[in-house]
Amino acid sequence: MNLTPLTPITELYVCHSIPLDNTYRDTFSKKFFPSASAQASFFINNSKFTFTNLSPIRLQNQIRLPVNADKLYDCNYIVFKNANFSDKYFYAFITKIDFINVNMTNITIEIDIMQTWLFDYTIQPCFVEREHVINDTIGANLVEDNLETGTYVFDYAQTISGLTPCYICLGSTVDLSEFNAVSGALYKNVYSGIQLYAFEPNEGNVNTINNAILSLTEAGKSDAIVGIFMCPPTMFETSLLDFNTGKGYDSVNGYTPKNNKLFTYPYKYLYVSNLDGTSADYKMEFFSGENCSFKYGGDYSMNPSVALIPTNYKGIQNNYDEKIVLSNYPQCAFNVDTFKAWLAQNGSSLGMSVLSSALSSGVSAGTSLATGNIAGAGTSAISGLLNIGQTLAQISDKSKMPPQAHGSQSNSLNVALGIKNFFIAHKTITYEFAKQIDDFWSVFGYPVHETKVPNTTNRPSWNYVKTLESKITGSIPFNDISQIRSIFDKGFTFWHGNFVGDYTRGNK
After folding, report:
1. Whether 393 and 479 share a structural domain
2. CA 498, CA 167: separation in Å to the nearest integer?
3. Is the confidence at residue 274, as pLDDT, over 50?
4. Which comes out higher in pLDDT, residue 7 or 419?
5. HSE-up (13 A, CA, CB side) for residue 103
6. Model-wide pTM > 0.85
7. Which residues of 263-286 are buried (b: 16+ CB within 10 A; e: fewer)?
8. 123 and 15 inside one domain
9. Percent of the chain with pLDDT over 70
10. Cα–Cα distance list, 502 to 92, 125, 499, 507 (Å)
11. Domain assignment present for 327
């Protein structure tokens, strides 16, 4: 049987300046090449030499070309088609150029499996580690990336105006007008038998408090003062108050991000401190609406506290579990005039004692004189007078005693500094770290950690993809399928135009 020899009609194009290599960090996408013919046209249009009627080229081979090696040193890629066998173009990297003679050069090639089989394989749903996402809405991409964040700074800070200045509060078991005993009642759902009087902190009200203490003392009711303390104005509000602060979704420490993940925790978040050792971090993306919303209010007690409660946070209208509390308000010391208090409490008995002694001495003297007992009269009179003298001496001694201190002075530092309040701030990474992280995401996308078909063409300029145990199907050699899977799992970038490596282009 005679075989008709095939006419060599293999065509080969030697290309220059093709921005691809066998590391497969970058490749061209179907978005750049909408068809196989468009793909072939691009590479052929970037060829430096064209050869026809060559012998068939094997996929892993060395090829001899009738051209001087010096003319090929700027060439890094070839396109060829063995027309005797198929109409398919193959794409390959030039990995080595060897001089044979002035008219002959040997090139070593390695098939570019990503371009050769670009239209012949399909990526199936698999675990996607990273990619450029379709939806970059703030809060839509919260998988942690474990990137270095550096030192944090406060981008914006404020306090709640309704909590300062602190009031002076006097607690008493009697009312301050008639000194009648007060009756117990429910205050904010809690029973109390103490009446609380609040005064704004000014000189006039200080004098009012001092006069109240004096009046109670003179009335012998100084013990009715249970205590004096500082309190927040909200202690007397019957309902919770609203507080809102903006999210600041315009910049991160002055840097305007290209990737909205930079507006989320841990790159930017709301920091709240009671300035007394307790703080809380709130993720602004978990607040529904345009603002970070809170309610705040205090209890009715001698040791008051104020709670700041996030609202519409993590899907909970009033998230009491994540509240932060402001407490340790100052307890105040006050003076009671010891003599006046003693005199008020003992005045009646002292008066009766003096009267009794005076009457006793007078009666005894008169009786003794009437009976002619002069000695008895002297003794009785002297005894009565001595009792009166002792009482007067006791009064004199009590009058010299200093005022007695009640209560104790404590927890006064933050009030003294004018900072008894919640400190609320946007806590962010610095401008420098924000730019570094933003640039990283622009190149490598976000962590996704989701089983899905990877995004390969949704961005205008490039798409980065990294998978785990990718699934590739197609009518292509098994070894090439295995290698394509490895490329996806290692991570690489699809470029949608002839601008490989140009990350200055827009890609939102």
Report:
1. no
2. 70
3. yes
4. 419
5. 0
6. no
7. bbbbbbbbbbbbbeeeebebbbbb
8. yes
9. 83
10. 23, 29, 6, 11
11. no
Confirm whether 121 is domain-assigned: yes
**216 sits in which H/E element:** helix 203-218
pLDDT digits (tens, 9 = 90+) for 93-109: 999 999 999 999 999 99
CA distance 306 to 299: 7
Query: Is residue 32 situated within a structural domain?
Result: yes
384, 402, 420 — which closes off a domain?
402
Tens digit of each residue's pLDDT (9 = 90 or more) over 55-94: 777 766 889 999 999 999 999 999 999 876 678 999 999 9
- Do 454 and 356 lie in one domain? The reply is no
Which structural domain, as residue segments, surrounds residue 384? 342-402
Give the separation between CA 230 and CA 223, rounded to whole angstroms: 19
Dihedral-angle region of residue 4 (phi above 0 means left; psi in -120 to 50 means alpha; beta otherwise):
beta
Q: What is the pLDDT confidence band of residue 2, given thresholds at 50, 70 and 90?
A: low
The first and second tokens of residue 456, run together, are 């390969």
pLDDT in tens, 351-387: 555 455 555 555 554 555 455 554 555 555 555 555 5
- Total structural domains in the chain? 2
The tokens of 55 are what?
């012998």
Residues 21 and 119 placed together within one structural domain of the fold: yes
Whether 378 is covered by a domain: the verdict is yes
Does 456 share its domain with 398? no
Which residue is listed with tokens 């205590």? 227
Distance, in Å, from the CA atom of 434 to the CA atom of 194, rounded to the nearest integer, reads 55
Give the pair of three-digit tokens for residue 499: 């601008």
Strand partners, 404: 336
Does residue 109 sit in the same domain as residue 53? yes
Torsion of CA 260, 265, 266, 271, to 10 degrees: 130
Q: How far is CA 135 from CA 162, 170, 447, 455, in A?
A: 40, 58, 13, 11
* Greater pLDDT, 186 or 124: 124
